[in-house]
């Protein structure tokens, strides 16, 4: 059976002012896949992730999700299509508790599933349940990464974008994070587009991979 394309990026160019950061990027992510994008720091990987969400917008090329052109779509509308992101640097809310951070990720369209979704996050990351009332800023780096992914999962995504999930983490924690990503893909069929400097770990996890050299 032919693969169903979920995310299709064609010829995308992105600029910061007059500086071109992406120079005609082509990437395809099929439904149910884990696809890795690897490359050195500064190659443009995170810029591509942000461009998918429209911040910054592509100046040329197209980004299509599930058959819908999202290239110039507002970020909040892209999120409503059930694309969720765990960004580089985690970007949790440090003064909010674990539970409050998860609440911030919940989709208004799926509030009837809220309790179920919280429990799924806690099943995937039991350590978060142990720290349910703890402020995000007091968590370890690994726990913050778990929280960032958990918050994204609260949106019930069809596509999960992960930007450098292993950054700055100990090897044992990286294994736990990658095992959780694999579990989500195998048990829930979640499609994952993963940006990583950790080429060996990312390609071991992924079904396919792309290499970005300089935009």
Summed up, what is this model?
The chain has 8 helices and 9 strands. The chain is α/β, with parallel strands linked by helices and 215 residues long. β1 and β2 form a beta hairpin.
Description:
With 215 residues, the chain is α/β, with parallel strands linked by helices. It has 2 domains: 1-81 and 158-215, 3-Layer(aba) Sandwich (Rossmann fold); 93-156, no CATH class. Helix content is 35%, strand content 26%. The protein contains 8 helices and 9 strands. The chain has helices at residues 45-52, 75-80, 98-105, 114-124, 126-130, 141-153, 171-188, 199-205; strands at 5-16, 19-30, 34-38, 60-65, 68-69, 83-86, 159-163, 191-196, 208-211. The strands form 2 sheets. A 5-stranded parallel β-sheet has the order 6-7-8-3-9, with helices on both faces. A hairpin with a 2-residue loop joins β4 and β5. α3 (98-105) runs parallel beside α6. The longest helix has 18 residues, at 171-188. The chain is globular, with a radius of gyration of 17 Å. It starts with a strand and ends with a strand. The model has no long low-confidence stretch (mean pLDDT 92).
């Amino acid at each position: 059976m032919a693969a169903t394309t979920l995310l299709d990026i064609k010829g995308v160019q992105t600029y910061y002012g007059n500086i071109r950061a992406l120079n005609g990027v082509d990437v395809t992510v099929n439904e149910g896949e884990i696809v890795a994008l690897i490359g050195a720091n500064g190659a443009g990987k995170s810029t591509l992730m942000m461009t998918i969400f429209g911040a910054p917008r592509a100046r040329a090329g197209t980004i299509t999700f599930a058959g819908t052109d999202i290239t110039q779509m507002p970020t909040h509308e892209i999120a409503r299509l059930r694309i969720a992101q765990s960004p580089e640097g985690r970007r949790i809310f440090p003064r909010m508790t674990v539970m409050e951070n998860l609440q911030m990720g919940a989709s208004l369209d799926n509030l009837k599933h809220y309790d179920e979704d919280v429990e799924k996050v806690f099943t995937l990351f039991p350590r978060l349940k142990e720290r349910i009332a703890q402020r995000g800023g007091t968590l370890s780096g690994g726990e913050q990464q778990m929280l960032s992914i958990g918050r994204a999962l609260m949106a019930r995504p069809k596509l999960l974008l992960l930007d450098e999930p292993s950054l700055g983490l100990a090897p044992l924690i990286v294994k736990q994070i990658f095992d959780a990503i694999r579990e989500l893909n195998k048990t829930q069929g979640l499609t994952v587009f993963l940006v990583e400097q950790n080429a060996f770990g990312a390609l071991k996890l992924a079904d396919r991979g792309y290499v970005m050299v300089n935009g």
